[in-house]
Amino acid sequence: MTAPLSPEAAPPAVATLSPSESVLASVRESAERIRLEPEALELLKTPWREIRAQLPVRMDDRKLRIFEGYRVQHNGARGPYKGGIRFHPRADIDEVRALAMLMTYKCSLMELPFGGAKGGVMCDPTRMSETELNRLSRTYMQHINMILGVTRDIPAPDMGTNAQTMAWMMDAYGQMHGYTPGIVTGKPVELGGSFGRDQATGRGVAVCMREYARLEGIDPRDIRIVVQGYGNVGSWTCRIANEYGFRVVAVSDVKGGLANPAGIDIAALDRWAAVAGSVAGFEGAEPITNEQLLATECDYLVPAALGEVITGENAGAIRARVVVEAANHPVTPAGDAVLAARGITVLPDILINAGGVTVSYFEWTQNIQQFRWALDRVNQELEVRMVAAFGDLMARAAKDGTRARQAAFDIAVERVARAIRLRGFV
Ligand code: NAD
């Protein structure tokens, strides 16, 4: 076992915070370390704009259902707002606000010319038909289109939404404003989407794990990984990590988990999941619960599903050396404090899952240029940016003696604050 690469000073005990308060806690800490002027911090504490919209949708049974939807634009000092749209029963305004804040710092950390935003609709897309989802996506767009624009705010998919959702939203926007492919990213390739967008977030996660393994001086073939969530991010992380040689010893989705200490055959699992619609029931591994999955002994634990899954209550049970935050905000501040005290390294979400927004940036660029890049070029440019951001972050953490998350926020907040000053806001 190798010592963690960044010094793991234990942060003070933390009370239960809402998602946006948790993100703000990281920003406040950064503000102190980098001596941010109080006025700039005031600007970052609250979003620039929030929309809360009533979304009436006629369901297939002809009954009218009213959903609640949001778009939060946190900070646009570095460029147009950018951030996904989540369809999930827990997507309330505070969660969306927290995710919008994270987008500001993620785009900044990756040096993308964007600010941060996020959208959400409180709904359960798994219980809705395709026609209901189509109607909901269009209704959502009708209610937020006035604050969007190719140079204003560009949404993308997130949990519960996908390329099809983006196609409906692009179409609804086009009906109001004319053909505008650059209004959303994560579109189907046939409608101006970028090659490689579907695998981009997972590829970024795998590249960061490979770089961290290199820093540790360990061959990926000697590293066991456990991945929670086998959706877009989790499944692509497994596939690409597998190509790099990592051994995937456990995975799960909402229906249950699987473990095989000898390594799960990912290609066979994909064939199974394509038919069964879940990893559960795959015969090449033993069934486990999601609770057991988080406590499975491994080297790198990769939460790639929901937020706040590692908490003050369960962080003590984790048996990994490194937590790789592929999901957004998967570790609560209380969970983070326990992991730090136990010497477990946490590689933060604003770096780890930034591959998606990076290729969204490439997609937006291609749409503006009306030009398409080949898949190799997309993957290569993504690789260059992920490796550079990873290197800068680890160097900063080593220089300042901070944890990786602290270094990530320090770099990101500094850049946003600089843009705020240059624009003359403070
Ligand atoms: P997805 O909807 O494609 O997949 C989510 C997966 O999590 C599914 O396999 C689902 O079954 C599983 N899941 C849900 N609840 C679970 C539970 N309680 N226990 C275990 N598994 C559970 O979503 P996604 O796009 O892969 O996003 C996953 C995470 O990554 C989210 O936090 C999202 O914000 C973040 N993220 C996604 C992207 C992207 O490009 N898709 C980019 C950045 C961050």
Key words describing this protein structure:
Rossmann fold; 12 strands; 5-stranded mixed beta sheet; 14 helices; 426 residues
Tally of helical runs: 14
Give the integer mean of the pLDDT values: 95
- Computed over alpha carbons, the radius of gyration is 21 Å
The CATH superfamily of one domain is known as NAD(P)-binding Rossmann-like Domain
* Protein structure class: alpha/beta
Q: Which stretches are low in confidence, meaning pLDDT under 50 for 5 or more residues running?
A: 1-13
User: Which sheet architecture does the biggest sheet show?
Assistant: 7 strands, mixed
Strand order across the largest sheet: 9-8-7-6-10-11-12
What would CATH call the class of one domain? Answer: Alpha Beta
The succession of helices and strands, N to C, reads: HHEEEHEHEHHEHEEHEHEEHEHHHH
CATH fold node name of one domain: Rossmann fold
What is the share of helical residues? 40-55%
| Ions and ligands | nicotinamide-adenine-dinucleotide
Multimeric status of the protein: single chain
Please give the number of β-strands: 12
Instruction: Give me the CATH architecture of one domain, please.
Output: 3-Layer(aba) Sandwich
Using the alpha-carbon principal axes, give the shape: globular
The separation of the N and C termini measures 48 Å
Bin the strand percentage.
Answer: 15-25%
